[in-house]
Amino acid sequence: MNHKAIRIPLEIQIGQELYQQIQGKVLESILREAKVEKTENYFKNILQGHSFKVNEKLAPRLYESFLDVKLRLGFEEPIEFYITNNPELNAFAVSRLEVDESHIININSGLIDKVDDDELKFIVGHEIGHLISNNANIAQLLNFVFQDQAQSPLMMQHKIAVWDKLSELTADRFGFIACGRLDKVLSCFFKMASGLSVERLNFDPKAFSLENEEILKYFKETGSGNLLSHPINPIRIKAVELFETSDLYRNLLAGTELREDKKLDTQVSELIQSLMVISNSPVNFHRISFIASAGLIVAGIDKAIEPDEYKKIIEELSAFTVFPKQTLKQMIDDNKMEEFFENSVKALLEINPGEKNMMMEYMINIIIADSTISEGELNFIFDFGVKLGFERKEIAQIFASSIQEQFIPNIYL
Question: Contact, 158 vs 278, CB < 8 A?
Fold first, then answer.
């Protein structure tokens, strides 16, 4: 089975970027050599002491079911399955670091009790999907580097958040392949969301799907879906439905060569747009335009954009967009910095006149980012500040405050 062809392209792209940014290969080598307890052994020790290991003697039915899922997904690496006495409807996968060890998948007892055999195959297939994609490993490395996610760079925080959601969508595809029944996927989502039994409610998969379409429409309009750690269920359900009707899945069932499915990629890309946006606020749209255009204009006054200036622009953009580098590149490629700059300034002042203080502070911070202040940069700030309605004394005071708080002189001049 061509596992890569099944995965969502953007999930692959962002996962590779994150892996490279934290130097995953080097980090894995260090962790293998380091005299610290291996993550997978840590989990194994905990699970063996407090959980039930599924094997062919003690739980032959579950064991055979789990092996069947592995076989359907074409995953040959060893996995140890555990069931933990926990009422929460949850499961997780732990990737191995050493080739002579097993991966781990844990399923809480509450989930085992709630789902039927087909739904359980979806869950197990989903967790194996995290192993197949190597996303479980990347997640472990990220957690090792950033034990407190809030301390990670803002640009990475948003990227990690989006990647987390995309990795869930990819894992859902493998879960669906393992299960093979869309109605069971829907009932599984219903049970995990509600905690209820479908039998007691006479569950109707088609009605549930239609209801999810309405909820999905709401989240698309409000952009609220990006606030959640996992993609909202309507997005996950719709993504599985698109996969089920795709040429990619039909080819998989037919056993033919798996190729790029552009139609499916386009449909999923449109579906996940709400996950790509940090905020749908009109003012943030203009802030992005201002930060990119103003940053490039100010940084280019002295004819060269220094690395520290570029970094500062990217950091500021990271508060408003998941892909700040692409946003800045697009601004450069369009070569309309002056037009975007003037339009964004006008729009921001019309929406909120108080934005002028943020504008001044941002542009000054770009100027001092490279530890030098040229006469041209100084003149630009004073001219721009006056146009915004500031007195020259006010501009000088803002500049002086920024220097005192952030300026580090270049001692090598």
Answer: yes
